[in-house]
Amino acid sequence: MTEGSVAPKRSWLNRTVFGAGLTSALGDFCYETTTVILPGFLAVLGVPAAALGIIEGAADAISSFTKMAAGYIADKFGHRKALVIAGYALTPAGQALIALAAGWPLILLGRVVSWFGKGLRGPLRDAIIVQAVAPETRGRAFGFHRAMDTVGAIAGPLLGVALLGWAQHLPWDNEADPFRFVFWLTLIPGILAAVSFLVFVRDPEHSPNPAMRLFTTLWDMPARFRHYLAAVGLFGLGDFSHALLILAATQLLTPSLGVVEAAQLAGLLYVVRNAVQVIASYPVGALADRFGARKVLVGGYALGTVMAILMVAAFALREENIVILAVIFAIAGLYMAVQEALEATVTAEMVPNSILATGYGALGTVNGTAKFFSSSMVGLVWTIAAPQFAFAAAAIFMLAGTFMLLRMR
User: Fold this and answer.
1) Which candidate, 90, 71, 153, places its Cα nearest to that of 344?
2) Which residue of 89, 189, 349, 371 has the lowest C-beta tally within 10 Å?
3) Taking a C-beta distance cutoff of 8 angstroms, is the pair 297, 240 a contact?
4) CA–CA distance from 387 to each of 81, 175, 399 (Å)?
5) Sign of the C-alpha dihedral, residues 222, 216, 118, 132?
6) Has this prediction a pTM greater than 0.70?
7) What are the 10-residue block averages of pLDDT along the chain, 409 residues in total?
8) Residues with Cβ < 8 Å from 116, sequence gap 6 or more?
9) CB hemisphere CA count around 308 (13 angstroms)
């Protein structure tokens, strides 16, 4: 290098960030297609809202505890890429179980298998991304990754809804068969996701730490990070699975459209949610790099609270106006863009690189445990009392978590 020359800056959009984004797009294409048509499938099978809440909550809980174990194993032994690939391979395996299901128990098993894979790969993939970019560009890197993630979450449901509409006109033995047909097709992008990560992603050097102990490491996490996890967990107690949002739209629209058309339209509303998320993800990351990730995250949490309150109003007024429902789903997409891009970014600001995968595992465990409670609570209150009471309870927890994060020093 000549005198006075400047060392080139490390680009945040490198092979690893792009490869991780492409992999996530394919992975989301696989399982988000199932997410969008699963409520309709359960409605055809006669499964109540409580079962959907338990299915989604249990899957989130399994994913969360898997994240903790996967993060610890990666930091202790240094193996990350192979575990991520295994995690992506488990998603299509779970989809196959759902396609074979005749009732909710096998659906639960399939969802748990898929979400076990999601938990296995999540914190390790995020740790790889963090080490592949400079600290000052983490927000953009995660924003890009979440945007790519959501591209698959748009394309998959769109194709799934279109295929479901086409398949229902074919000669089937019962109403559930068109849904099964779409589930089987989701295996293709699921397998390609594992191949993509294998080919494109390079895992930055990560030294093993064989002397590391899980509970000692967790106890030694910075106090500020523990306070942050408390705020995330409190918000998460109301942050229910958006499969319940799809079910809500399906129920509101069924009286005027019928269950299959209502499920299709609810699926398209979910695509609206995902489209807003993909459009917002990179700008959210850029805003976080400029103004601070925690400040922007507080705004995202506030939007989540607004979304839950609007769902209360929709059921209280029996509102089936498609425009109003689209606004609700759009707000859901905006707050998810903030949450998914910036919870990881805030964690990276508080936790040392040597135990970052474990930190992400702790974040995932708190999120998943809280969502198990929230999804189960919303489903049970919905079934026992009324959906407006379920969403009101969710709004209270989300509001409390927003204020707790806002008050953090």
Assistant:
1) 71
2) 349
3) no
4) 42, 26, 18
5) positive
6) no
7) 43 80 87 79 79 78 76 70 88 90 86 86 81 77 78 80 82 83 89 90 67 61 85 92 87 82 84 85 83 89 95 85 90 91 83 75 81 85 90 96 89
8) 62, 63, 66, 87, 90, 94
9) 29
- Residue carrying the six token digits 């106890």: 219
